Structures are given as C-alpha cells and as structure tokens.
Amino acid sequence: MSGCFEIDVTIPPPLPLVLVAAVVLIDPDGRVLIGSRPAGKAYAGWWEFPGGKLEPNETPEQALARELHEELGIITKPSCFLPFTFVSYRYGDLGLHILMPVFLCRMWEGTPQGKEGQELKWVRPANFHDYKFVPGSVPLLPQLQERL
How far is CA 127 from CA 47, 102, 122, 134, 140, in A? Predict the structure, then answer.
C-alpha cells in the first residue's frame, strides 16, 4: 500500500496539552472584539480573541462565561455561544500545545472593558491584517474573514 505511510515525517516530541476556549464577540455592526495581551504575559502586546484556560470540571462554555466576566466585565450565558471551529496549535517556545474550541457570540450584557490592563478594539474582519495576532489565533483569521 502506498500513500502517506511512505513519507518520512519527523514528529516533534509531545508537549503538555492545554485546553483553552476562545470566543469571537460580534457587535451589531459586524465588528469583532480583539484584545492585546497584557505586559508580563507571553506575547505581550500581540492581539487575541477573549477566552482562557479551562478550570477542572469546567466546560468550554462555562469557562468562557467566567472569563468574559473576569476579563471584560460582561455577562453572558453558555447558551449564547455558537460552536464555530477549533484550533490545535503547538507553542514550542512556551513548551505547550493548545487545543482551543472557538465559539461565536452576539449576545451579552454590559460594555466590554479591559479589566486586566489589556487594550480592546472592535475591528472588521477585513482589517485583521493590521494587527499582530498570537500564533494560535492566526488559523482563525481567514475563516472569520470568509464567514462573517
């Protein structure tokens, strides 16, 4: 049998798998909320979508509702998140591999504010190229530009 088994592919050593969740908040004008990573964190100043690590026994939707309240001061419910896609990304420089379910959300209460010192911007997907996104978010950009 021929095919992919004949190709010599070097598989990098495994890294710890970290489950994180992200959400693409979309306002009534079709803009998307992005935030810069705060000083002192890896990739400080680079842009990303809201979200974060799951706590033990927490679903991705529960984690997002918690993270949005903690980081942005907004309130939403797990039922407001529409599954969109996922990202599997190896951060060799950080010594981890993320698995990131990504959701869309158009409903929340409150006005997002950077409660952790992060800068926030509402941007049109067509303008994503104007921002330096963290590597794990980059695979999302063309999908969002195509579908939003």
Answer: 13, 20, 10, 16, 14
End-to-end CA distance of the chain: 42
Q: Which amino acid is at 141?
A: L
pTM above 0.85, yes or no: yes
- What's phi and psi for 23, nearest 5 deg? -135, 140
Residues 20-46: pLDDT tens digits? Answer: 999 999 999 999 999 999 999 999 999
**CB 80 within 8 Å of CB 103:** no
Q: How far is C-alpha 122 from the geometric centre of its chain's CA atoms?
A: 15
Whole-angstrom distance, CA of residue 47 vs CA of residue 33: 10
* 63 contacts 53 by C-beta, under 8 angstroms: yes
